Amino acid sequence: MFKIVLLSWIFSFALTSVGQIKETITLNIQNFKIQQGLPNNNINFCFQDKIGFIWIGTYSGLSKYDGFQFKNFYPNPNKKDYFKIGQFISHLKVSDSVYFLTTKLDGIYKLNVETDKIVKILNSPASPTRIFKDKLGDFWVGTLAGGFYRYILKTDSFQHFTLAPLLSVFSKDWNSNTINQIEEDPKNDSLLWLGARNGLYVFNKYTEKIKSFKIKDENVMKQFAYNHIVTIKFDNDGNLWVGKFFGGLAKFNTNSKTWQNYFFDPAAFNQKVLFTNIITSINFEDAHTFYLTTNEGAMLFDLKTNSFSKYELKLNDKIMESGVSNILLTIMAISGSVI
């Protein structure tokens, strides 16, 4: 196990709340882009394997960083069972050695981090968005415009489900059958919660019935924003937190089936509301706080005080205006580069 030390530019990582800086941490970190060896500056995920290597999913291939240099895996249309396009979207750890990787328009791939071998899972859906493993060991795959699938590893087979009948018209199916996130109900493992482009759904794995919990609003644009879900995550009390694209943050009580919405309104701004309405991920730090990654940077939400704080990245005492797509310990995917 090696330790990666990232040195170069000096950043100030500041947490501001109610106009005051509560904590400032100076980090010596290096900014990696194409010039330093990445295959692409657009990054969707990064993770660290058991050995310590950092794996980075980009729009032009996969990259492995050993602390000194990048080893890149580029698309190869002529190689059998290999990725042809190479736009990596998400990952799921299956074991210490094996990860599943989803790609845009190129299916699901199995990565062995010990051998660096990448093999396509045959008959996998063409445009997977996320992959999730339930307590029974089955895998569930959300897709772009194609509903969702159950992947049974033992039989290497897929079972297809949709939120609405497929119309074979991409623009319509994109609105009605795009699923961005899947979570299992912590109190009832027969239920899967689906964060879709057109609302929140619950799916019973045994009855195969689907129920919708869309938010209704007289304003069509607001209704669209409230229901365009990007990410979902359960807290320890069984509440489902929902991040949206232009719809802010919401808490859904799975018992009472009621919503509590946090929506940034510049006209009625106060320090307990969001700084933006585009939420890309939710990452719990502990039982009472979680990080939000947004197009305006990273935020921290305190469940006890029901308030938000905003992180700021500074370079040479100058605030960097950059969005954050995800957080991995002290590694961040920011504005299409790794720092």
Overall description:
The protein has a domain at 85-320: Methylamine Dehydrogenase, Chain H (7 Propeller), CATH 2.130.10.10. The protein contains two helices and 30 strands. The protein has helices at 170-176, 220-227; strands at residues 9-17, 20-29, 43-48, 54-58, 61-65, 70-73, 88-93, 98-103, 107-112, 117-120, 128-133, 139-143, 148-152, 157-161, 179-184, 191-196, 199-204, 210-212, 229-234, 239-244, 249-253, 258-262, 279-284, 289-294, 297-302, 307-315, 318-319, 324-328, 331-334, 337-338. The strands form seven sheets. Strands 1, 2, 23, 24, 25, 26 and 27 form a seven-stranded antiparallel β-sheet that branches. The chain is globular. Residues 1-29 and 327-339 have low confidence and may be disordered.
Annotation keywords:
339 residues, mainly beta, Methylamine Dehydrogenase, Chain H, seven-stranded antiparallel β-sheet
Task: Describe what is shown at a glance.
With 339 residues, this protein is mainly β.
> What is Rg?
20 Å
Distance between the termini: 21 Å
Share of residues in strands:
over 45%
Helix content: under 10%
Which helices and strands, and how do they pair?
Elements: E1 9-17, E2 20-29, E3 43-48, E4 54-58, E5 61-65, E6 70-73, E7 88-93, E8 98-103, E9 107-112, E10 117-120, E11 128-133, E12 139-143, E13 148-152, E14 157-161, H1 170-176, E15 179-184, E16 191-196, E17 199-204, E18 210-212, H2 220-227, E19 229-234, E20 239-244, E21 249-253, E22 258-262, E23 279-284, E24 289-294, E25 297-302, E26 307-315, E27 318-319, E28 324-328, E29 331-334, E30 337-338
Antiparallel strand pairs: 1-2, 1-26, 3-4, 4-5, 5-6, 7-8, 8-9, 9-10, 11-12, 12-13, 13-14, 15-16, 16-17, 17-18, 19-20, 20-21, 21-22, 23-24, 24-25, 25-26, 26-27, 28-29, 29-30
